[in-house]
C-alpha cells in the first residue's frame, strides 16, 4: 500500500492478520492533507509494482492530469482500478464524472463513490463492460 497524505506511507506486501493490522493502523491516522499531486505520486512509486500487479487508485481529484499517469502505468503491464470519490457530492465545486469515459476507454475498472453511498454495494457492482472488476 502506498499513501500520500500528511506524510508518505508505504506498507510492504505481506500476508496474514498482522499485515491487515498494519494497513488499518496506517489508514486510521492518515489524513488527506498532502501536497503531492496524484500523478506525481503514481510516477514516483510505480517502480514498486511488478508487472501484473493490480493498482487501485482512490482519489477525489477531478483533474484530467492523473489519468495520463494511470494510462502510462497500465502500458507497463499493470492492471488499474480507479475509485473516484466524487467531490461534488460532498459539496465540492467539481465532479469526477467527466473522467469516467477516459478511464473506461483505457480499459480501467472505474467506480464512482458519492456521498452517502454504501461502499460495499458500489464496489461490488457486477459490471458487464470490459475493464470492470468485482471487489469481494
Question: What's the layout of helices and strands?
Answer:
Layout: E1 2-4, E2 8-10, H1 17-29, H2 38-45, E3 54-59, H3 65-75, E4 79-85, H4 100-105, E5 109-113, H5 119-123
Parallel strand pairs: 3-4, 4-5
Antiparallel strand pairs: 1-2
Helix pairs in contact: 2-3
Can you tell me about this structure?
The chain has two domains: about 1-35, no CATH class; about 40-135, Rossmann fold, CATH 3.40.50. Strand 1 and strand 2 form a beta hairpin. The protein has helices at about 15-30, 40-45, 65-75, 100-105, 120-125; strands at about 1-5, 10, 55-60, 80-85, 110-115. The chain starts with a strand and ends in a 13-residue tail after the last helix. The chain is built from five helices and five strands; from the N terminus they run E-E-H-H-E-H-E-H-E-H. Helix 2 (about 40-45) runs parallel beside helix 3 (about 65-75). The longest helix has 13 residues, at about 15-30. Residues about 130-135 have low confidence and may be disordered. The protein has a three-stranded parallel beta sheet. Strands 1-2 form a two-stranded antiparallel sheet. The chain has about 140 residues and is α/β, with parallel strands linked by helices.
Amino acid at each position: 500500500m502506498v499513501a500520500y497524505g500528511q506524510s508518505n506511507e508505504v506498507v510492504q506486501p505481506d500476508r496474514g492478520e498482522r499485515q491487515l493490522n498494519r494497513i488499518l493502523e496506517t489508514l486510521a491516522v492518515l489524513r488527506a492533507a498532502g501536497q503531492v499531486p496524484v500523478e506525481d505520486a503514481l510516477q514516483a512509486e510505480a517502480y514498486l509494482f511488478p508487472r501484473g500487479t493490480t493498482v487501485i487508485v482512490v482519489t477525489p481529484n477531478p483533474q484530467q492530469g492523473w489519468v495520463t499517469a494511470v494510462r502510462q502505468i497500465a502500458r507497463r503491464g499493470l492492471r488499474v482500478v480507479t475509485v473516484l470519490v466524487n467531490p461534488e457530492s460532498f459539496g465540492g465545486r467539481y465532479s469526477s464524472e467527466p473522467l469516467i469515459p477516459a478511464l473506461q476507454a483505457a480499459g480501467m475498472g472505474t467506480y464512482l463513490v458519492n456521498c452517502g453511498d454504501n461502499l460495499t454495494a458500489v464496489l461490488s457492482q457486477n459490471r458487464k463492460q470490459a475493464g470492470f472488476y468485482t471487489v469481494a
